[in-house]
Amino acid sequence: MLTRLGFPAVGRHRAFVSALAIDALGSGIWMPLSLLYFLRTTDVGLVELGVAMTVANLAVMPLVPLVGRLVDTVGAKQVLQAANLLQAGAFAVYPWCDSVGLIGVAVGVATLGRTMFWGANGPLVTQIAAPGEREVWFGFVQALRNAGYGVGGLLSSVALTVGTGLAFDAVVWANAASYLLAFALMSRVDAGGRPARGSLPRRSGFAVVARDRGYRLLVLAIFLYAMVEMTLNVTMPVYFADLLGLPGWVPGAVFVVNTVLIGLGQGLAVRSMTGRVRYRVVLGAIGFTASSFVMMLAADALSVGLATAVVLAAAVVYTVGELVAGPVLSALSAEAAPDAHRGTYMSVVQLGWNLSGALAPLAYTALLAAGPLAAWGGPLALCGLWALVVLALARVLPRASTRVTNAAEESLTV
């Protein structure tokens, strides 16, 4: 079934895939409740809760380089398992967090665990996937994550419907248990063990990446990709509801369209790239993304019925852009990094994602306040800048000009 959808043959990597699936399911259950849980189970106010969560997230950001170094020294699998344990512990104590301080500490530990997970996930996928098949594997991981988020989101609606403290606590404890199960499954994963002492870098840190011009541009390209992707979570829901006045079901429907298309179409999209030059594939993705933003803007001039139809069509176009760009950029971020420094290099990519998560809400809400033209003019300008960066990338990063093969290169080693 997986191969028919264009995904890789899982084979001996079933434990790894199962661990990722369980992690994604647990995350999908928790994401819709992350703010509501503490609002429903404690006396902490919305503003205080927002401050606690913001501080917790900002406090973790300086640790991202250390996560990369840890991946390079002890191994991606070990860091990912440590992330599972940290998150399990944090969620297990959530029911006893009834003050701003305790919530901030617990959320900070969970965020650190999540940061360690993402810092180790990319290098671990790179170890497991053979060269030439990395777009397929990164696409598969992206599809698996979206499918887990979608199913988890449906399950979280049960807790929201019941609405009792016990129902919310049950979700938290189930999430903690899911991380422990993922830890156990990861113990069975053969990922090459720890790095050999002789292969460890003498010098590491962001200075190593800063001297790599090609990778700097790649990180910028991924940051811009992350910024335009944030429109799904920030701009679109507010634009549909407040600026267009569309029916309340539209934001949810757009999320479902995005989730389902990625879950079912990611593998087929990656297979369709076979033989195409990587940077040109990303340029094509930018074209789809920008076209979807133009469609969103055009909906402002239409009736509610027509605007709804255009918005749903734009969601499909937008998702195609995500389907195409994500696996290629992920594969490039893994392959363009030296083996001995891969954890450090990919932690810089993770920092770019974290930065986009911090900047996008502030930037996009300001643009929304200025009206539809600004709301979509800003993301369109980012698409233009993204395209310029990708064109420059093709000149300085040789791997950006290679072709997607979707076939293992047996002669190469990870």
UniProtKB/TrEMBL annotation:
Membrane topology: Multi-pass membrane protein
Protein keywords: Cell membrane, Membrane, Transmembrane, Transmembrane helix, Transport
Subcellular location: Cell membrane
Domain Major facilitator superfamily (MFS) profile, chain residue ranges per copy: 214-414
Record field: transmembrane: 15-39, 46-68, 88-112, 214-236, 248-269, 281-299, 305-332, 344-367, 373-394
Record Pfam families: MFS_1
Domain of life: Bacteria
Protein name: Major facilitator superfamily (MFS) profile domain-containing protein
Origin organism lineage: Bacteria, Bacillati, Actinomycetota, Actinomycetes, Propionibacteriales
